[in-house]
Structures are given as C-alpha cells and as structure tokens.
Amino acid sequence: MSGPARWRNHPGYGAFVVHRVSGLLLALFLPAHLYVLGLAIEGEAALDSFLRWTEAAPVKLAEAGLALLLAAHLAGGLRLLAIEFLPWTDRQKTLLALAGGFSAFAALLFLLNAL
Amino acid sequence: MSEPRANGPELSVEVWRGRAEGRFQTYRVPLRPSQTVLDVVTYVQRRIDPTLSYRFACRVGMCGSCAMMVNGAPRWTCRTHVARVAKDRRLRLAPLRNLPVIKDLAADMTPFFDKWREAEARFLPSSPRAAATARIPPADPERAAADAAIECIGCGVCHAACDVVAWQPDYLGPAALNRAWTLVNDARDADRRAHLAAVAGDAGCHACHSHQSCATFCPKGLNPTASIAGLKRASALALLAGRL
Fold first, then answer.
1. What digits encode the pLDDT tens for the residues B10-56?
2. Out of A2, A85, A88, whose CB is closest to B72?
3. What's phi and psi for A2, nearest 5 deg?
4. Which long-range contacts (CB under 8 A, 24 or more apart) does A54-58 make?
5. pTM of the model
6. Element (H, E) at A27
7. CATH topology of domain B10-107
8. What ipTM was predicted for this assembly?
9. Are A7 and B22 an interchain contact pair (Cβ–Cβ within 8 Å)?
10. Which CATH number fits domain A8-114: 1.20.1300.10, 3.30.310.50, 3.40.50.920, 1.20.1250.20?
11. Within 10 A of B83 (CB to CB), how many other CB atoms are there?
12. Are the beta carbons of A12 and B226 separated by less than 8 Å?
C-alpha cells in the first residue's frame, strides 16, 4: 500500500543487503569448498586434477569474486561489531566507504596475484 | 462535493482509501508556494472529499500526529514541503507502515505505544515530588547520552521505517528502545536495571540489525540506532558483570 520502498534508500540499508547477500552466497559456496577438501582424502590424483581446473582464467575470475564476497562480509561484520561494541561515531558513511574500499582492494590484490 | 476547477499548476495526489484492504484514489490539487504535504491532505478533505480521514493537531512539528508514508517514505507531513518530495508534481500518500489502518490515512498507534509499555519505557521516580530538584551536571556523560535521545515526539516515523518491526512483530522498535536508553542513563530513575532487563530479551535491542533507517528518517534528527547500540553494550556488560 505504501508504494516504492523508499525507506530502504540509504547507505546503511545497502550495507545490510551486501552483508546478507554475501553471507548467503558464502554459505552456498561452503559445501563446494568442503567437497574439494574431501577430494584430498580420496587421493592425490583427484585433488590435483581439480586444482589444475582451477588454474583456468574464468575460474580465477570467479575466485576473485569469492575473495570480494569474503572481504565484504568480513569488513561488514567488523563494521557491525564496531557499532555494537565501540562508542557511537557519526562517521557511519566513512566506515561504509572504508569497508567498501577494503573489499575492492582485497579482491584486486587476489586478482593481481592470480594473474 | 464536486472537485473545484483550478487554474495554474496542479499536483496529482494518490491517496489511500480504505483499511487494510482498499485502493488509491487520485485527486488534483493546486500547487502552491511553500505548500506542505499536510496542506495538500487538508485541501483534499476540505475542498474535494470530506469523507477522507487523517490525523493532525499542532501543524508545527511538535505533536507527532500527522506522520504518513509519502512517496514510499515515512515523513511528518506538517513539515514536509511538497517541493522537496514531489519534484514531478506527483504524491502518493498512505498510512504509516507497520501499523493497523483505522481508515484512509489514519493508522492505529496502539501497538506502537503498547511497545513503550512493554519496554518499561517510563520514568520510575527515586524521590518524592516534594524533594529538592536533583542536581545533574549537563556535561555528565550519562546525562549527555540521555539528552541526545530525549526529544522524541512519538510520531512513529522510525517504527514505519524499520524493517525489523515488519519482520519480527514483537520487536519493541526504535522509539521504545530509544526511550529506554534515556532512562538507563537517568541518574534519577529508581530502577535502571529493570529498564535494561526489559529490553535485553529476544524482542529487544539485540534484534536490531543496525539498518539505520530510523536514524535516517527521524524528523527530529534523533539517532535511535545509536541508542539501541548503547543498550546492546550496556546489557552485554551487565550480563558479564552478573547484573542481568
């Protein structure tokens, strides 16, 4: 009834969405991660074969996306802990910018190392 | 009553008619300089459709009666200028979100104020009325924390802006928790631990996701998110110290 959800149009809500979505995507990735670790138990050949596949450029690019998700979730989580356990600061947008900058930096660093 | 013909620029105003079930009805309202959204609603009710229900009292941002959803955001309508929120000359007005609708633009504030009671958000005097006035330095950190949160007018804008209120109906909400924070910091209160205990449960401060929508839309410029963060810290410390 209230029309477009403009009460969500502000940076703090955007940070919440990034934190929630990155957390869900990481949770979805976790079974794949555990499966790969499980390959090591099955035998060296199976793991090596998979690791060769991960050397492909598209997979490295996807891994950079994963690094971005991890960094964004970590930075967003630290921001929330700062809100909840440190004295309040009105520089919330600065904290958001720092979290975003850290995430982008971490993903780019991963990509540079991978190339 | 028929709609008066206007010369000059007009606003197209969609207004919610009905209760939980209803529809938007469109009215044409003359555009005026320095016009507030409340002016527009009043024009519709007095000049076009007297069956329209809405609520207001002071018209100057003191009473907290006239809040509504304006183009999808909660606003105090008496101090929201049309020029600021309707640049395309279109307004969509609905009753405050997260509350039952009585009729048209009038929301039922009962659940909102019930939550203040559930949060024990009322002052508990520690000395009789005849006692000398308590002397509290304005610079005292607790007083400063309470002062920062004290000017709430109970308009319900933060309650309507909060998604946690929508997702968890028993959540006490930003206004009640903000009030509780002022009492936890009030040296004159007789049982500050009781205020903290009332807001430390599942429906209390720890349910807040720190979206900061309450702080973004509070028309008085208060920051309930900061107050709730204070309650989170205070209740965690009280728990560690065995006081909760």
1. 999 999 999 999 999 999 999 999 999 999 999 999 999 999 999 99
2. A2
3. -85, 0
4. none
5. 0.92
6. helix A11-42
7. Ubiquitin-like (UB roll) (3.10.20)
8. 0.89
9. no
10. 1.20.1300.10
11. 14
12. no
